[in-house]
Amino acid sequence: MSSRPSAKPTAPAPSSKVKTLTIDDRLVSAREDESILDAARQNGIQIPTLCNLDGLTPVGACRLCMVEVKGSSKLFASCVTMVGEGMEVVTDSERLQNYRKTIVELLFSERNHICAVCVSNGHCELQNLAQLLGVTHLTVPYRNPKLPVDASHERFVNDHNRCVLCQRCVRVCGEVEGAHTWDLRGRGIDTRVITDLNQPWGSSETCTGCGKCVHVCPTGALTEKGKSIREMAKQSRFLPYLTMMREDRSE
Amino acid sequence: MISIEDLSQISQAERESREAVAHQINVCVAASCLSLQSDKVKEELEKAVEAKGKKDCCKVRGVGCMGLCAAGPLVAVENEKVLYQGVTPEDAPAIVDAIGAEPVARIQGDLEAPFFARQQKIVLENCGRIDPERIEEYIAADGYLALVDTLTAMTPIGVVQQVTRSGLRGRGGAGYPTGLKWATVNKSQGTRKFVICNADEGDPGAFMDRAVLESDPHRILEGMALAGYAVGASQGFVYVRAEYPLAIKRLKLAIKQAEKMGLLGANIGGTTFSFNVDIRLGAGAFVCGEETALIASVEGGRGTPRPRPPYPAESGLWGYPTLINNVETLANIPTILRNGPEWFAKIGTAKSRGTKVFALAGAITNTGLIEVPMGMPLRDIIFDIGGGVPDGKAFKAVQTGGPSGGCIPESGLDMPCDYESLAKLGSIMGSGGMIVMDETSSMVDVAKFFMEFCMDESCGKCVPCRVGTAQMHELLRQISAGEATARELALLEHLCDVVKSTSLCGLGQSAPNPVLSTLHYFRGEYESKIAAGEAAAAGHTPPAGGAA
Ligand SMILES: Cc1cc2nc3c(=O)[nH]c(=O)nc-3n(C[C@H](O)[C@H](O)[C@H](O)COP(=O)(O)O)c2cc1C
Ligand code: SF4
Ligand code: SF4
Ligand code: FES
Fold this sequence. Notes:
The complex is a heterodimer.
Chain A: E1 18-23, E2 26-31, H1 36-42, E3 66-69, E4 75-77, E5 88-90, H2 94-110, H3 125-133, E6 149-150, E7 156-159, H4 168-177, E8 182-185, E9 192-195, H5 212-216, E10 222-224, H6 238-250
Parallel strand pairs in A: 1-5
Antiparallel strand pairs in A: 1-2, 3-4, 3-5, 6-7, 7-10, 8-9
Helix pairs in contact in A: 2-3
Chain B: H1 4-20, E1 23-28, H2 31-35, H3 38-51, E2 58-63, E3 75-77, E4 82-84, H4 92-98, E5 108-109, H5 114-117, H6 135-140, H7 145-153, H8 156-166, H9 178-187, E6 194-199, H10 208-215, H11 217-231, E7 235-241, H12 245-260, E8 276-282, H13 291-298, E9 322-326, H14 327-339, H15 341-345, E10 355-362, E11 368-373, H16 378-385, E12 395-400, E13 406-409, H17 419-424, E14 433-438, H18 443-457, H19 463-480, H20 486-502, H21 506-510, H22 513-521, H23 523-539
Parallel strand pairs in B: 1-2, 6-7, 6-9, 7-8, 10-14
Antiparallel strand pairs in B: 1-3, 3-4, 4-5, 10-11, 12-13, 12-14
Helix pairs in contact in B: 3-4, 7-11, 7-14, 8-9, 8-11, 10-11, 10-12, 11-14, 18-19, 19-20, 22-23
The complex binds flavin mononucleotide, iron/sulfur cluster (2 copies) and FE2/S2 (inorganic) cluster.
Residues 170-174, 176, 181, 198, 200-202, 286-287, 289-291, 324-326, 329, 431, 505-507 of chain B line the site of flavin mononucleotide.
């Protein structure tokens, strides 16, 4: 930062709402209501994420997007930390890479992710993260829990063995579809996603069958019945467009 | 509309009626003694007074916790300064006979013992001395004086300044400066503001807050009303766990009594200040003591933490600025305003002012509740007040701060007990739980116990805490069972680092602390377990490592 002072004096007074900061030694600017993750992405800096999805309220649950901010010994989840003037952010230190690798390992160890027999094989966000971070084997023991598969819905399947509890389904159903079919029950390692009051998805009275949850689900936990691997690639890009159009109309 | 004069009249009348009977026989009816049938003792004492025709000179009262729970049920004869311990209903006639004569030596306790003599009581000043179900007794102990006086004599920011000058720090665990928090909420913009009293108290073995709620509930209400005035809130909530039925019952009663006297409700003391208090029950999840999870729970949602900022002081309950303070923090407020901040700041150490309530538990003679000035050496607390380790066993460690804290060995006992020193020792003050362990305890098992607690209580929202605590618990189980090698120990240490650094809330961030502190002070115990595991592994073929 010290090597590149910002050119302040001659420019007109900058709007108070825009902040200047450095991310991985690159000078960037961002609106004060943008997160570090937003600012990084706009500038082509990739930070690994899992729970975050454009168009949904960030929850800061997966902790993969943690970054270092100079002057603080604490780490910050970049999806929920807003930019600040003069911030110096580091997104890819060895320490961070190490933590991210362990977090992905923890996710693989938590449930039963058998990629070879999964319809999301090849386009799964968890699998992509493992490849990106170089997770080739687990150092933590597999927990091998016994988990159910809910295939009661006529078009969709919910396989708890592959759920990473990112809460995207919960959020899209509540925030965008407005049906509030999904929720969580239990706590800690026993937490599960549920439909309605823990009824089979097929007998849900609130589910509209829109399928948004399936398409935001990062893994093979929520899938459509009868689709081949290639057909089942998730289409979550509709979301930012949808939310943007709604915002515009309400003005 | 209630005034200072009204208060002093009530107080006067109460004192006179008390002085009219020569002997007050106080029976502890707080949870611990109650569980030993102190209600029966009280009944029998009343009968004995009646039968022996001593109604004119003796009055039996139920009071709150006297602290020495290990020796309950406790009965005190106030004017004679006599304490009886381990009282049974059958002892009642003898106790009544002994009044005005020689005390019953068989069950007499020693009020001059260090357990009583070395304590200094602010938060617990009324506990065990007043009937928690009668507002008049609280008023006779100068209760609500600070509230009525402050409302008519001080500006809200003046109250904030008093609290700031006192140096009071939050007793809920983190030790955040209370005055600073109040100032932030005072300055936050909002059409409404709220005050929340955090009475979730989830640490295993902790019962400080419960004792205050059961023994002196009006103190909390007065503290909350003063907080409300200082920050500009007119609604308060007490978030208390449903497992505290007696505390809830007494709080409800106290709220009703205070409302009836105009000490809560609209236009308190004839001023423009109005303040109401409602109770919200928690289902007993430890994580619901975390402030953002608590707020979610009060709002009717799932009790899980959310990232901060924004802090509740800025955006809390339903998005409005919200002050959250612990029970003990609020319990200090009326006394600080009554006696002045300088008086309070003289107690304790430079950075940790005032007193702290501790719940002594585990391998210690005097299990119970104590309040001491901050900075008293741990050794004095454990050996002098606590009476040391029973059964001639040797002291091994003391655990402070519950599942977020650490274990302190013999070598740390001469450190003063304050926020900074405990942190230096690798533990925390926490909310005041103090569990003593003797030479027979395995420190690996202690770490495993607390990890199991964190695993069970993790809300499950973030990955490192949800899965990391389960994995660390499994590793500790393997180590404890002599099934682990150096590889597992290294992995455990790595997971401690990951979970501490990346978890979303305080529960996950501090879950590794018991492991880290036992590893620091008692690494030998881990290593001997590992040696056993290595030997076993060498005897057999090691299990093959799996691939993803
Ligand atoms: C997992 C967890 C549990 C907590 N439990 C409690 C509790 O039971 N009681 C409490 O007062 N504070 C608890 N806290 C601390 C609160 O979040 C908050 O800091 C405190 O109530 C603030 O009050 P104070 O400033 O008066 O200490 C907990 C924090 C965490 C992370
Ligand atoms: S079902 Fe899919 S979208 Fe829902 S929480 Fe699990 S992984 Fe996330
Ligand atoms: S650290 Fe644990 S308790 Fe806190 S949010 Fe994460 S999972 Fe929940
Ligand atoms: S992407 Fe930020 S915590 Fe999951």
